[in-house]
């Protein structure tokens, strides 16, 4: 089997070895040194160059080396008949929860304020609310958002969430539809965005919707940068309508040097690091879905190109 690998952040020897362990005889082609493109069976990619994937005539599957697929679906020349499959890896899902948990506690227990107070040598103990008095909202209740919401609820936070279709998650008040979105926005003291970037979600967190959030609320964006109106967020933080924002994803990555988020006192920036692809477990997840395709089965995590995720 011939596998194309397009990701400059990966340990290629490790991937080649891990895939061979499950798939047997694998010839591993690291882009751009591909050789004969007619030989390639499967492509494992992160942010493939536009138009590249259509140049492999016998491709049987395109695999995202990440949970999101927007970096693949953005290609207007994507071969239509080839299934796109995304990564759902429990190790990374749990990492995403740990990231969310850190920042939920950061805002819940006023660590942002204490950081500012320390620079001014101010001793000012804040009132502590119980987790049950704090509303945590999660937009997107899929593999990651659902897990985050469930764990936030287990920690005692008053947790609500929103998704396209109605969900049932223990301890979480789940909503859908426009009214559901408005309700989650109006109530969330801490709002976590876990939505994928699709034509429906891009620009969703705009000025009007950010204005619905309770005064002094905080935002944690771990989904995609395109969902957020950056200027609207900065205006909301500057006016005091919102208290703080933690941003892991951006509409342009790496975040440009001159972007205002870098130095904004109420913004925490991390470099798309909330749940990195785990190179020990991810190749095995992908290999098992390749085997499903080889056996004529539907892969476990096929992307619906019409829905955009
Ligand atoms: P899933 O596809 O499992 O979940 C997506 C969720 O979003 C689902 O609940 C879905 O609803 C909901 N959704 C999608 N479109 C809409 C819409 N128009 N209106 C309302 N709800 C919508 O994805 P994952 O949970 O695995 O990952 C989510 C995203 O997180 C990825 O696409 C990626 O962008 C980002 N990500 C970021 C990482 C990081 O390091 N920062 C790491 C991994 C992922 P429904 O359940 O009804 O289908
Ligand atoms: C992503 C990922 O999709 O890092 O953002 O997995």
Task: For this entry, give a set of tags.
Rossmann fold, five-stranded parallel β-sheet, binds oxalic acid, 309 residues
In short:
The radius of gyration is 21 Å and the shape is elongated. It has helices at residues 12-23, 70-73, 90-108, 111-119, 143-154, 177-187, 207-212, 230-239, 282-294; strands at 2-6, 27-30, 42-45, 61-64, 84-85, 135-139, 158-162, 172-175, 190-193, 217-221, 242-247, 267-269. The chain has 309 residues and is an alpha/beta fold.
Oligomer: single chain
Strand order, biggest sheet?
8-7-6-9-10-11-12
The CATH homologous superfamily of the largest domain is termed: NAD(P)-binding Rossmann-like Domain
Q: Which CATH architecture of the largest domain?
A: 3-Layer(aba) Sandwich
Percent range for helical residues?
Answer: 25-40%
Low-confidence blocks of residues: none
Distance between the termini: 27 Å
Which structural class best describes the helix and strand composition?
Answer: alpha/beta
Strand content: 15-25%
Largest sheet: 7 strands, parallel
General shape: elongated
Would you give an account of this structure?
The protein has 309 residues and is an alpha/beta fold. It has two domains: 2-89 and 277-294, NAD(P)-binding Rossmann-like Domain (Rossmann fold), CATH 3.40.50.720; 90-269, Rossmann fold. It is built from nine helices and twelve strands. The chain has helices at residues 12-23, 70-73, 90-108, 111-119, 143-154, 177-187, 207-212, 230-239, 282-294; strands spanning 2-6, 27-30, 42-45, 61-64, 84-85, 135-139, 158-162, 172-175, 190-193, 217-221, 242-247, 267-269. The protein has a seven-stranded parallel beta sheet. α2 links the parallel β4 (61-64) and β5. α3 crosses α5 (143-154). The protein is elongated, with a radius of gyration of 21 Å. The two termini are 27 Å apart. The mean pLDDT is 98. Oxalic acid binds next to loops.
């Amino acid at each position: 089997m011939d596998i194309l690998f397009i990701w400059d952040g990966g340990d290629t020897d490790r991937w080649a070895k891990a895939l061979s362990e499950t798939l047997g005889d694998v010839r591993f082609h690291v882009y751009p040194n591909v050789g004969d493109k007619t030989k390639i069976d499967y492509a494992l990619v992160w942010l493939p160059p536009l138009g590249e994937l259509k140049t492999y005539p016998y491709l049987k599957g395109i695999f995202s080396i990440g949970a999101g697929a927007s970096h693949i679906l953005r290609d207007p020349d994507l071969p239509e008949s080839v299934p796109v499959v995304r990564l759902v890896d429990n190790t990374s899902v749990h990492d995403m929860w740990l990231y969310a948990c850190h920042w939920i506690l950061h805002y819940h227990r006023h660590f942002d304020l204490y950081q500012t107070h320390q620079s001014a040598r101010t001793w000012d103990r804040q009132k502590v609310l119980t987790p049950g008095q704090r509303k945590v909202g999660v937009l997107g209740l899929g593999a990651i958002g659902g897990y985050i919401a469930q764990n936030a609820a287990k920690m005692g936070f008053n947790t609500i969430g929103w998704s396209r279709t109605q969900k049932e998650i223990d301890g979480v008040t789940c909503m859908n539809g426009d009214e559901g979105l408005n309700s989650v926005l109006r109530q969330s003291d801490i709002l976590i965005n876990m939505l994928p970037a699709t034509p429906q979600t891009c620009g969703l967190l705009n000025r009007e919707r950010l204005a619905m959030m309770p005064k002094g609320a905080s935002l944690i964006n771990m989904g995609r940068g395109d969902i957020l109106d950056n200027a609207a967020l900065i205006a909301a933080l500057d006016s005091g309508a919102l208290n703080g924002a933690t941003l892991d994803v951006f509409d342009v990555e790496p975040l440009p040097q001159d972007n205002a988020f870098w130095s904004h006192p109420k913004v925490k920036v991390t470099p798309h690091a909330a749940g990195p692809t785990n190179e020990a477990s991810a190749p095995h997840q992908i290999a098992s879905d390749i085997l499903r395709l080889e056996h004529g089965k539907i892969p476990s995590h096929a992307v619906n190109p019409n829905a955009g995720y």
